[in-house]
């Protein structure tokens, strides 16, 4: 969803501008006003006779509607001999149906004032769009057609495979991609979540017949959801959904099950991805964190904001502002249906690879052993609630958030629950989450860079260093 990405960039810029310390704020500024609770969307929930889940959020006024169809079964459900085929599936669903060519599909969605955004995650494939409310019926009919009647024409699949192969080569030139791929393997081993992208071999071997088979397995109403957010009346929208999607029938076969993941503490080691001639090292620390529905999820989010998830965090203050080792270190808590991952990443100059490793380890351990100050708590809670409030101003973001909740097996009310729990998180809860998830000894480490630089810089820390591909 393009608007989600744009909002994320705006949020990052706002965070940077407010976090700078060079110019002190006036001393006579008024105190914070009372914190407003996060306003969660009001969701009407229905289930059609064929098993399709429907969530509708009516927000009259601005004449736009965002829609999404999410089907369970993403990268983690890909066959072992076709890793990453979900990405090819997402790239070809809109390349033809039984009644429309790829060109006609593109023209139809553009005539409605929108575009199609189709992507694959670890756990799902999501088809979404945002259109003028006056053309919502056109967009809904098109989404329904794609969900039920995609044909994967040979010529379009051939072109998509070539484009995906080129895209993969480009991504493999980026150290961040190499780090993510190596970290997924370090954490998940051979478990389904180790797949982050296709391989050249799987792209070459994939056929239209493979795509049709996987499409039939995943795009079925009993494991899918339709979401609409925007300027419509619930009753009228529900009638249209029933008309367009009520006749959708499941193919024979078993629905895609949730991935089975072993979330044991990763083996303490440095996994080295060689990048000859690199003038910097990409360091990534990764470990398992809570899932979205876990009781300590919100406390872990607050802890992460304090540690490295904001521009004014401990980690950024340390290795960017104070020491100048890197430009943009960050940490994040990513959640999937069956696992949560806490990771830290920093691109650092070769000559400070060792010191950066030391300071990241220090900040992880400091988070696990040092209680946050009142100021850190206040800033982290306000930041998280405020950012979520900004995100929920976009209908695309609301639809995307609801889709993610459903994929993870959570109700739509979780949006409001999240805001309330973040706002009420205590220092004691943050301490408990930090002790559980943040000790550096719980992390696997990936280093992407010049082999000799990494080996020499990290040798004093005593961790085994293993070259991975």
- Catalogue the unreliable spans: 13-20
Any idea what the radius of gyration is?
Answer: 23 Å
Query: What's the CATH first level of the largest domain?
Result: Alpha Beta
Percent range for β-strand residues: 15-25%
Give the averaged pLDDT, no decimals.
93
User: If helices are DSSP runs of H or I spanning 4 or more residues, what is the number of helices?
Assistant: 17
What is the CATH architecture descriptor of the largest domain?
A: 2-Layer Sandwich
Shape: globular
Distance between the termini: 31 Å
Kindly identify the CATH topology of the largest domain. Answer: Cytochrome Bc1 Complex, Chain A, domain 1
Described by strand count, sense and barrel closure, the largest sheet is:
6 strands, mixed
Based on DSSP secondary structure assignment, what is the total number of beta strands? Answer: 12
**How many separate domains make up the residues?**
2
Q: How would you name the CATH homologous superfamily of the largest domain?
A: Metalloenzyme, LuxS/M16 peptidase-like
The H/E string reads: HEEEHHEEHHHHHEHEEHHEEHHHHHEHE
Structural class: alpha+beta
Classify the helix fraction into a percent range. Answer: 40-55%
Please list the strands of the largest sheet in the order they lie side by side.
Answer: 1-2-6-3-5-4
List the helices and strands and how they pair.
Blueprint: H1 2-19, E1 44-47, E2 53-58, E3 64-72, H2 85-92, H3 102-111, E4 116-120, E5 124-132, H4 136-149, H5 154-171, H6 175-188, H7 200-205, H8 208-218, E6 224-230, H9 234-245, E7 270-274, E8 280-289, H10 297-309, H11 314-322, E9 330-335, E10 340-349, H12 353-369, H13 374-391, H14 395-407, H15 414-423, H16 427-437, E11 444-449, H17 451-458, E12 465-467
Parallel strand pairs: 2-6, 7-11, 7-12
Antiparallel strand pairs: 1-2, 3-5, 3-6, 4-5, 8-10, 8-11, 9-10
Helix pairs in contact: 2-5, 4-9, 10-13, 10-16, 11-12, 12-17
């Amino acid at each position: 969803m393009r608007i989600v990405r744009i909002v994320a960039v705006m949020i990052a810029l706002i965070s940077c501008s407010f976090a700078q310390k060079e110019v002190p704020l006036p001393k006579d500024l008024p105190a914070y006003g009372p914190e407003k609770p996060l306003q969660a969307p009001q969701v009407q929930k229905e289930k059609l006779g064929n098993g399709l889940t429907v969530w509708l959020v009516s927000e009259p006024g601005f004449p736009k509607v965002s829609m999404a169809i999410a089907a369970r079964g993403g990268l983690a459900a890909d066959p072992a001999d076709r890793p990453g085929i979900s990405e090819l599936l997402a790239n070809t669903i809109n390349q033809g149906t039984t009644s429309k060519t790829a060109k006609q599909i593109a023209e139809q969605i553009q005539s409605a004032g929108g575009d199609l955004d189709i992507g694959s995650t670890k756990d799902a494939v999501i088809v979404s769009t945002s259109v003028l409310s006056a053309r919502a019926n056109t967009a809904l009919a098109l989404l329904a057609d794609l969900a039920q009647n995609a044909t994967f024409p040979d010529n379009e699949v051939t072109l998509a495979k070539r484009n995906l192969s080129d895209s993969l080569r480009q991504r493999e030139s980026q150290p961040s991609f190499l780090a993510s791929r190596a970290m997924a393997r370090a954490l998940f081993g051979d478990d389904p979540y180790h797949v982050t992208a296709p391989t050249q071999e799987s792209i070459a071997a994939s056929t239209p017949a493979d795509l049709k088979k996987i499409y039939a397995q995943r795009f079925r109403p009993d494991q899918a959801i339709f979401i609409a957010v925007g300027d419509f009346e619930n009753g009228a929208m529900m009638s249209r959904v029933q008309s367009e999607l009520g006749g959708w029938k499941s193919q024979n076969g078993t629905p895609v099950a949730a991935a089975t993941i072993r979330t044991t503490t990763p083996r303490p080691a440095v996994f080295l991805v060689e990048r000859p001639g690199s003038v910097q090292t990409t360091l990534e620390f990764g470990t398992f964190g809570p899932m979205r529905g876990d009781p300590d999820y919100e406390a872990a989010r607050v802890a992460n904001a304090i540690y490295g998830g904001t521009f004014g965090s401990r980690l950024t203050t340390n290795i960017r502002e104070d020491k100048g080792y890197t430009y943009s270190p960050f940490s994040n808590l990513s959640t999937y249906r069956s696992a949560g991952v806490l990771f830290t990443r920093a691109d650092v100059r070769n000559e400070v690879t060792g010191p950066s490793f030391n300071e990241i380890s220090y900040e992880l351990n400091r988070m696990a052993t040092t209680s946050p100050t009142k100021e850190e708590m206040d800033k982290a809670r306000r930041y998280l609630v405020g950012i979520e409030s900004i995100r929920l101003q976009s209908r695309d973001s609301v639809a995307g958030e609801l889709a993610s909740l459903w994929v993870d097996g959570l109700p739509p009310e979780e949006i409001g629950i999240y805001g309330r729990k973040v706002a009420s998180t205590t220092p004691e809860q943050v301490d408990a989450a930090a002790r559980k998830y943040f000790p550096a000894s719980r992390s696997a480490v990936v280093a992407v860079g010049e082999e000799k630089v990494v080996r020499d810089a990290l040798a004093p820390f005593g961790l085994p260093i293993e070259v991975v591909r």
